[in-house]
UniProtKB/TrEMBL annotation:
Name of protein: Urate oxidase N-terminal domain-containing protein
InterPro entries: UCP032086 (IPR016988), Urate_ox_N (IPR010389)
Upper lineage: Bacteria, Pseudomonadati, Pseudomonadota, Alphaproteobacteria, Sphingomonadales
Keyword annotations of the record: Membrane, Transmembrane, Transmembrane helix
Highest taxon of the lineage: Bacteria
Length: 190
């Protein structure tokens, strides 16, 4: 058991295999289509992305000031770079699978241009909120974090300037994630 659960890639592989078995076991009552498969991946990657957004905002950021200076290197040198890898690629893959699902589902253009009403309009608002959030991840948070974590060279002044920029963009994403999640789920309530 320890060998199995100690291997992240193996656990993920078995989890995906179990999901595929379920998909095809219930295929007669819940057909597996390119749309449903893409939407499933969209939800998976979205959970990775938003889960890490919440981890960063609810746990890591508020806890960092309480960690003794000699122990911060463990977070900034080992944990944070891994968190930000999954965070930014979770964002990217969420956007890609969401746009692909919208295109396959036939509501992408209407939703993104707010031509759809009701359900289509609500999903469009959610899509734009997600796109803004992904922009923040890749073009504000990640460049600032690379300086803060020492992944790229930066002076002490540049690091100090990067910290509030990253925090504000991250808190903006936290704020936007709440209505964005309602839009995504609410569009399916109807």
């Amino acid at each position: 058991m320890a060998k199995f659960f100690g291997n992240l890639h193996l656990v993920l592989s078995v989890g995906f295999a179990a999901a595929l078995i379920l998909m095809f076991s219930f295929h007669s009552s819940v057909p597996v289509t390119s749309y449903s498969a893409t939407l499933w991946l969209h939800v998976f990657f979205g959970i990775v992305w938003i889960g890490l957004l919440y981890y960063l905002n609810f746990v890591q950021v508020p806890t960092m000031p309480k960690i003794p200076a000699e122990q911060k290197g463990a977070i900034t040198g080992h944990i944070a770079p891994k968190v930000f890898f999954f965070f930014r690629y979770g964002a990217l893959l969420t956007v890609i699978t969401g746009l692909v699902a919208a295109a396959i589902g036939g509501y992408g253009h209407e939703s993104l241009t707010f031509q759809g009403v009701g359900k289509g309009g609500l999903i469009g608002v959610g899509m734009w909120l997600g796109l803004i959030m992904a922009f923040n991840v890749w073009f504000i948070i990640w460049p600032a974090q690379k300086k803060i974590l020492g992944i790229v060279e930066a002076t002490a002044e540049e690091k100090a300037a990067a910290a509030p920029r990253a925090l504000y963009a991250s808190r903006t994403n936290l704020l936007l994630s709440i209505p964005m999640l309602y839009c995504m789920a609410g569009a399916n309530f109807a």
